[in-house]
């Protein structure tokens, strides 16, 4: 149990809610839930040091609150009230009309599900329509194909590779990939995200509870079906592709 911290600060009171999730100010009450979902593998690709245990998570949250221009949130599932992760608007420069989305991590049980596009929609909507920024930046570790794919599916523009951008846990320098969304692009991306969120939520409503589904299976099923619905509606699988999937399924069962 983490001892109460009398000077634990909440730097904002902004709550964003839609599409089955609530983004609420990151605070001490979220320490235990977030600490339970974090380990070295989940934290790979994050620029902040690994928060070990509840004390480490409390320090991470305090650091987030102390960052200039940072609005950190806990992501809460409105279906069951569970904390499913954390995300933030960071490096906000009102005079330059720019902000970045970062410090994002989710419980493995919800990887590939609607939580990421729903959270990103709320952050992007507040950035462009609330804060009035012109540019929203996003970055991901160049090795993290899951995060890179998730950002690209938002409709963000890949700007380039930031070589040797930060220190890794082992002391080596690692590359990051930079993306951005600009104000004139937001209306189209907003519409695309809304169209994507509807089928994703419909698919999830028909799936087994989170506790009985593996994260990797959830990610594959939801994303492949949602992308097909969004782009084409139900589509036939080519024979060769079907055969490859059957072979992969047989290998997984062995």
TrEMBL record:
Region (Disordered), start-end ranges: 232-254
Molecular function in Gene Ontology: acyltransferase activity, transferring groups other than amino-acyl groups
A Pfam family this chain is assigned to: Acetyltransf_3
Ranges where the N-acetyltransferase domain occurs: 29-184
Keyword terms, alphabetized: Transferase
Biased segments, Basic residues type: 242-254
Protein known as: Protein N-acetyltransferase, RimJ/RimL family
Organism: Flavimobilis marinus
